[in-house]
Design a protein that fits this description.
The protein is an alpha+beta fold. The chain contains nine helices and 16 strands. The chain is extended and about 95 Å long. The N terminus is likely disordered.
Length: 402
């Protein structure tokens, strides 16, 4: 006994002296990449803090993969949580920066106007739906810089768009009919990695430790390169898929999308570029060109085991998610009704047995003074009369005479 106590004391002392900063997900092993290995970006369902119901990603007119949409194998946890993980058209390679890569031209629907039913994309934007992308089992996070504090805030996913006043609306108006939806058609995909020793001596491999998405709304003035689907298919058949295909020619582009700039002088899209773009933000209607940047940064301070730290601290430093009170109340009401129903059934069926057994176990002398008495068979049978099925509970096993 003393030996066990000593071992327990030593274990507790060791636990308190060790500073644990890592976080590990059971069943998820580290994955290492070589330079220019393909890094797959997967998409998940769209979620909102205002609506209870998620939307499948490709239910909205987003760009689809060239070889078609396919479900990605899910583990048990993803299946139980209702995830809908699918492939995407975004092409990413390890340590390869990309600038204003074109994804596709998509038609988002009718122009938003007063008295006109909004499109699916507009409704989703106004309900504050968010994208949830995944790279190397790491969910995307959006970065928000706080003007009042010195730190950077992170939140889960990133918004598919935003709402602002229409051009013909009064300044500062908050009327629903004066608000217009704008799509975030450009994203900066910021990936951080750290270097590890490779399986072969003398080689280096890399592990992804952070996945940040910074969305922008940029109205590109473009002319489609392909006039029909046949031209696009021929272009892909010629082996141009991995070369960064150009589905459109952009007129008067922002600096990061300027094709005349050499590769060594290229710069990633910034907030200032997006704000001062010549055509302003992109409305969530009509034909829209989707583009993206990829920026790789080495981070020696974050290990693979601690790459989930920013997600665990989002409740403190990020944008808090609103609680779905309607769902909670609905669940509580259902639990209460079911519990009450089961309790009534049990009390009616077991009242006689429980009362008699309890009194007999306590060996009490029951007198009229204590107002106690054992329930008689007649009293117990009163419940049988009230429950008709009990009158024939034995007869159901008796074969009929005819």
């Amino acid at each position: 006994m003393l030996k066990n106590s000593a071992l327990l004391t030593a274990a507790l002392a060791a636990f308190h002296t060790v500073n644990i900063n890592g976080f590990y997900l059971p069943g998820v092993a580290p994955r290492s990449f070589h330079k220019e290995d393909v890094v797959e970006l997967k998409v998940n369902k769209l979620t909102s803090i205002h609506d209870e119901y998620p939307i499948e990603y490709y239910r909205l007119p987003f760009c689809q993969p060239d070889k078609g949409v396919s479900m990605v194998n899910e583990n048990l946890g993803e299946f139980l949580s209702g995830d809908r993980i699918e492939n995407s058209p975004y092409k990413i390679k390890m340590q390869k920066d990309m600038y204003c890569e074109q994804v596709c031209i998509s038609h988002l629907g009718r122009v938003e106007a007063r008295g006109v039913s909004p499109s699916k994309m507009v409704r989703a934007i106004k309900r504050n739906y968010h994208d949830n992308w995944i790279i190397d089992n790491l969910p995307s996070a959006s970065k928000l810089e706080d003007e009042h504090d010195s730190y950077v805030k992170y939140s889960h996913g990133f918004p598919i768009g935003f709402v602002a006043n229409a051009e013909d609306a009064e300044e500062g108006s908050k009327k629903p009919e004066d608000l217009r939806a704008y799509i975030n058609n450009h994203v900066n995909i910021e990936l951080e990695y750290h270097e590890v020793d490779g399986a072969v001596p003398g080689t280096k491999e890399y592990r992804i430790v952070r996945f940040i998405v910074e969305p922008f709304s940029i109205k590109h003035d473009f002319v489609a390169t392909f006039t029909d689907d046949d031209d696009a298919e021929n272009y892909l058949d010629e082996g141009n898929l991995d070369e960064g295909r150009k589905v459109a020619k952009i007129n008067n582009p922002i600096a990061s999308c300027d094709a005349s700039v050499t590769a060594t002088e290229k710069k990633h899209t910034t907030y200032q570029m997006a704000v001062h773009s010549p055509n302003g933000p992109q409305p969530a209607s009509g034909k829209v060109l989707f583009t993206y940047d990829v920026k790789w940064t080495e981070n020696e301070n974050v290990s693979w085991a601690s790459r989930w730290d920013i997600y665990l601290s989002m409740a403190e430093t990020g944008v808090p998610n609103k609680v779905h009170w309607l769902g909670i109340i609905n669940s509580l009401v259902i639990v209460f009704v079911l519990t009450a129903t089961i309790a009534v059934v049990l009390i009616r069926n077991l009242r006689c047995d429980l009362t008699n057994k309890l009194l007999a176990a306590e060996n009490k002398l029951l007198t009229e003074e204590h107002h106690y008495k054992l329930l008689t068979d007649e009293e117990c049978n009163e419940d049988l009369v009230k429950s008709g099925w009990k009158l024939v509970h034995a007869d159901v096993f008796r074969p009929p005479s005819n």
